[in-house]
Amino acid sequence: AAMPTIPAISEHLGETLATIHRDAVARPVQGRLADYIPALAVVVPSQCGIAVATLDGEVAAAGDAETAFSIQSISKVFSLVLSMQRMGASLWSRVGMEPSGQPFNSIVQLEWEHGIPRNPFINAGAILVADTLVAHFSASRPAFLGFLRKLSGNERLMVNEEVLASESLHGSRNAALAHLMKSFGNLEAEVGQVLDHYFFQCSVEMNCTDLARSLLFLANRGTQPSSGEVVCSQRDAHRVNAILSTSGMYDQSGQFAFSVGLPAKSGVGGGIVAIVPGYGVIAAWSPPLNAHGNSSTALWMITRLAGKLGLSIY
Length: 314
Ligand code: GLN
Known about the structure:
With 314 residues, the chain is an alpha+beta fold. It has helices spanning 13-26, 75-87, 108-112, 123-136, 140-152, 161-169, 172-183, 191-202, 208-214, 216-219, 234-247, 253-259, 296-309, and strands at residues 49-54, 59-63, 69-70, 158-159, 204-206, 264-266, 271-276, 280-285. The protein has 13 helices and 8 strands. Strands 2-1-8-7-6 form a 5-stranded antiparallel β-sheet. It has a 3-stranded antiparallel β-sheet with strand order 3-5-4. A hairpin with a 3-residue loop joins β7 and β8 (280-285). The structure holds glutamine. Residues 72-73, 104-105, 123, 167, 174, 202, 267-268, 293 line the site of glutamine. Substrate binds at residues 73, 123, 167, 174, 198, 250, 268.
C-alpha cells in the first residue's frame, strides 16, 4: 500500500522553522540544566536550534542547528538499533517493552521485575543494551561511533572527553542499576566495561542536522534514503518507533503522545528527536530541562511544529 503522503510542506518549511525558533527564544527560559553531570551544567543555556530532514534529502534548519551538543539518551535509539541487528529476538527476553511511568533513572521497578528493565530507553534498559554491545563487539565503543558516523555521513563526530569523565565520576546511580542487573544474572559483561560503553555513547556530540539525517531510516521503514542502506528491517523500524512512542520521553511519554503524537527521544543534553514516518525527522535542542528531564524549549518547538503541520501519527 502507498504511504500516506503529507501535503507538500517543505516549500515554506525554512520559514516555519525560523518563526518557531524566533518565538521560542523570545519566551522566558524555563527549566534547569542537568547538573547531576557537572560538565553539562556549564553549557550556555540560551542556545536553541531546530532542524528537519526529509526523506527526499532536504534539510531545513533554524537557530543553533549546527552546534554540536551532548546527545545523552538520544544515543539509546542508536544503541538499540545496533543491538537489534546483533541480537535478533533474544534481546526481548532481557529487556521489556512497557512504559515505566517512572523517572529515567529509577531503580525501584528493576528489583520488583527481577533485573529485567521495563524498556530500552530508561537508563536500566540502555545499560542492558550496552551490555549486549560489549558482549558482541570486540571493541564496542569504536563500533558505536562508526555506526553514528556512517548514519550521519559526518566522519568528524566525536565524544566529548570532559563530559565522559564527568559522567563516570558521577555515575553512581547508573552503577547501581548495572550492579542490580548483574546480581539478577541479566548482565553478561563486566559491570565496569558496560558502564564505560554506556557513558561513552551518552557523551557523543552531534548537532540537530546530524541527528535528523541519521535517524531518517526510522521514518523510512528501516532504509537510509540517501544511500539505500538497510539499517534494520521494516518490522524492527516499526518496533523501535512503537517503543519510542510509549517510552521515549520517559514519564512524559503519555503527554507527548497526546500533544504531539510522534515517536520521539529526549536526552539530558537538551536534545529531542521526533520521527515523522513517511516524511522525515525533526531534531530540536535547547539545554534547560523540565522536571521530567526533557528540554522545555525543544519540546515547545516540536509541539508547535507538529501542531502547525498536523504531524500526529494518531
Ligand atoms: N547519561 C545520562 C545518564 O545516564 C543520560 C540520561 C538522559 O539523557 N536522560 O544519566
